[in-house]
Amino acid sequence: VHTPRVFSGIQPSGGLTLGNYLGAMKRFVDMQDSGVETIYCMVDLHAITVWQDPANLRRATRELCAGYIASGLDPEKSILFNQSQVPEHTQMAWIFNCVARMGWMQRMTQFKDKAGKNAQNASLGLLAYPALMAADILVYHATQVPVGEDQKQHLELTRDIAIKFNNDFGVDFFPVTEPVIEGTATKVMSLRDGSKKMSKSDPSDMSRINMTDDADTIAKKIRKAKTDPEPLPSEVKGLEERPEARNLVNIYAALSEKSVDQVMRDVGGRTFSEFKPMLAELAVEKMSPISDEMSRLMQDTAEIDRILANGSERARAIASPILQKTYDIAGM
Ligand code: ADP
Ligand code: NA
């Protein structure tokens, strides 16, 4: 039986979105405050599976740390660190590269999406990425991983790797980690297209709310969000074929910490010209303090670097003995 321990990470690839906040960060804070040990990483080694400008990467790593803290993570309560500062991640990843099968990696839909048509020209790291992700999690024997829906397949692979390692060596060493994909914002969609997830890599800035957007920008993006002409129904059922409406309702529910049913009772019957200003006001109320706090924290990058250095020491103290034991099991 493994002690409950939470791990998750976000890529410092620039431009954190409302999707990252609601689907990941806000949930990280809930888990921190639930009393279990929580470990949250800036996964810079994942970011470089596609090209990153070095100066941007350095800035984005600090900005992500600022985003974590501004969202409510407390470096005393949670371990906050940068992946590349803890070499046990890549050491464990090599073991898992040798446990995972080529076919498993080639099936990953995110690889296919990110590699595009010319997969031969993708980095080898982009293919191996999910084995590194398994290492991120299992090098801490993490039992729970809060993530958005898009990470479900990678979490299944992490479980497959843990199970295969345990079977191959006849041990019960790695926990079979549970994904924690819960709440009303497990997949926040684009504001311009209800069939695409909100993402920092979308070419249209109007498609997403960035965690650094100011109040006017947030309000404008919500005002211009794509919708349909019907008023809101009073029951969730009525949103089934209306992905854009459903998305705005989900965002409202997640920001206000209400269930979707409750939101439908509150706003059912309203038109979008009534509902959008309500949503904009709520989004500004919840997101502006975070963006203000992020810019304040970014004025003292030395302090951020100190927090990350301290976090990586604490992370290594957990990861190092687990890696040593893994080597031992494998005969090294
Ligand atoms: P991105 O997908 O924005 O490039 P990451 O891959 O680093 O960012 O994802 C960080 C976390 O944010 C993951 O747990 C992911 O599932 C979550 N996430 C990203 N986009 C969304 C979204 N649109 N809705 C909900 N969660 C999301
Ligand atoms: Na993602």
UniProtKB/TrEMBL annotation:
<keyword id="KW-0067">ATP-binding</keyword>
<comment type="subunit">
    <text>Homodimer.</text>
</comment>
<feature type="binding site">
    <location>
        <begin position="148"/>
        <end position="150"/>
    </location>
    <ligand>
        <name>ATP</name>
    </ligand>
</feature>
<feature type="binding site">
    <location>
        <position position="136"/>
    </location>
    <ligand>
        <name>L-tryptophan</name>
    </ligand>
</feature>
<dbReference type="GO" id="GO:0005829">
    <property type="term" value="C:cytosol"/>
</dbReference>
<feature type="binding site">
    <location>
        <begin position="19"/>
        <end position="20"/>
    </location>
    <ligand>
        <name>ATP</name>
    </ligand>
</feature>
<dbReference type="GO" id="GO:0006436">
    <property type="term" value="P:tryptophanyl-tRNA aminoacylation"/>
</dbReference>
<dbReference type="InterPro" id="IPR002305">
    <property type="entry name" value="aa-tRNA-synth_Ic"/>
</dbReference>
<dbReference type="GO" id="GO:0005524">
    <property type="term" value="F:ATP binding"/>
</dbReference>
<keyword id="KW-0030">Aminoacyl-tRNA synthetase</keyword>
<dbReference type="InterPro" id="IPR050203">
    <property type="entry name" value="Trp-tRNA_synthetase"/>
</dbReference>
<feature type="binding site">
    <location>
        <begin position="197"/>
        <end position="201"/>
    </location>
    <ligand>
        <name>ATP</name>
    </ligand>
</feature>
<feature type="short sequence motif" description="'KMSKS' region">
    <location>
        <begin position="197"/>
        <end position="201"/>
    </location>
</feature>
<comment type="function">
    <text>Catalyzes the attachment of tryptophan to tRNA(Trp).</text>
</comment>
<dbReference type="InterPro" id="IPR002306">
    <property type="entry name" value="Trp-tRNA-ligase"/>
</dbReference>
<feature type="short sequence motif" description="'HIGH' region">
    <location>
        <begin position="12"/>
        <end position="20"/>
    </location>
</feature>
<dbReference type="Pfam" id="PF00579">
    <property type="entry name" value="tRNA-synt_1b"/>
</dbReference>
<dbReference type="InterPro" id="IPR014729">
    <property type="entry name" value="Rossmann-like_a/b/a_fold"/>
</dbReference>
<dbReference type="InterPro" id="IPR024109">
    <property type="entry name" value="Trp-tRNA-ligase_bac-type"/>
</dbReference>
<protein>
    <recommendedName>
        <fullName>Tryptophan--tRNA ligase</fullName>
        <ecNumber>6.1.1.2</ecNumber>
    </recommendedName>
</protein>
<feature type="binding site">
    <location>
        <position position="188"/>
    </location>
    <ligand>
        <name>ATP</name>
    </ligand>
</feature>
<dbReference type="GO" id="GO:0004830">
    <property type="term" value="F:tryptophan-tRNA ligase activity"/>
</dbReference>
<keyword id="KW-0547">Nucleotide-binding</keyword>
<comment type="similarity">
    <text>Belongs to the class-I aminoacyl-tRNA synthetase family.</text>
</comment>
<feature type="binding site">
    <location>
        <begin position="11"/>
        <end position="13"/>
    </location>
    <ligand>
        <name>ATP</name>
    </ligand>
</feature>
<keyword id="KW-0648">Protein biosynthesis</keyword>
<dbReference type="InterPro" id="IPR001412">
    <property type="entry name" value="aa-tRNA-synth_I_CS"/>
</dbReference>
<keyword id="KW-0963">Cytoplasm</keyword>
<keyword id="KW-0436">Ligase</keyword>
